[in-house]
């Protein structure tokens, strides 16, 4: 499989190069040259395959022969070596729980796959790589955990000051070793812009070998398809029709992976882009105008994104045909008040606890079902304990931390504060890494 740069189609690379480089010239995202379809027999008989076999078949075409089959099987096995259950909330809505991995967030899947691919490729390269990543919450923790103490890899994580939860911050800042956390006095979009500037800076790139672990990296984005397949495998055990899927959406890598799986043959009735008050995409789906906005801080902070990087990939999948996009995707914006109400209602009615991001998806799905009564599932992207203030405010009960988090919360925070000024980031990268 080859990948081309969406901003410069003349730049064509293999999977290894796309993984190591992260992005192409002019900050362009890499995109597969063709969409490999699932065999019909495979999709119709998912129950006959183990989860590891499903994951391997999902990823094989994108990796090609660049990683030997036995190594790739090992990588996907380690990628999904935790439970990903589809749980019923009520008669019409299920939740795919993606938060049973080491950092209690869906991003463990992409981060684990990418870290292992990168580690494999670097064995033959004999070079040190700096993974530079911006996070609005969960990406940083998953990347830090996935790359912790990995030989020849340094990780630099930029996160917005006072805009991630206490648990998320500890997952970014408590590890040390090869993980550096930069606390940026600004928004996630500021963090993302700093990262993009670093990738375009000639001096930095002459001295450091940079790659990104955000979902702009194909090795982070593509494996997210796996859990859509695992969800369908479970869905078919109790339901007959095609599911509607509501995806909590910020930078849109997660939804983009689901839509890619749909284009490959995954049977899905409809997708819901569930956003908080950062409503750039719901507005676009209504008006056909893509207007970038300043980020608004919300309870569902991992989705506080005013300029979602991955949406260009979604438009590419649809051939930039607006009508086709709106046939398959509906967008909804949910405010904090409705988010808290959803957490409270679902907990009281169904004894099911949602985190703020899943609550946004649940509220969006309920709204969608008012005019389109169907069945479907939301993606539970993070464990509720990662957001104790919001969850406890909604249900008026304290949430117990798992033992692993109890230990983490006692560790010392290690971060370096910087302004959203590229000169400060550049100085750090050139003198400290």
TrEMBL record:
PTM annotation (N6-(pyridoxal phosphate)lysine): residues: 107
Gene Ontology MF terms: pyridoxal phosphate binding; threonine synthase activity
Keyword Endoplasmic reticulum applies: no
Gene3D superfamilies (UniProt xref): 3.40.50.1100, Threonine synthase, N-terminal domain
InterPro entries assigned: Ser/Thr_deHydtase_PyrdxlP-BS, Thr_synth_N, Thr_synth_N_sf, Thr_synthase-like, Threonine_Synthase, TrpB-like_PALP, TrpB-like_PALP_sf
Broad EC category: lyase
Listed name of the protein: Threonine synthase
Species per Swiss-Prot/TrEMBL record: Chryseobacterium mucoviscidosis
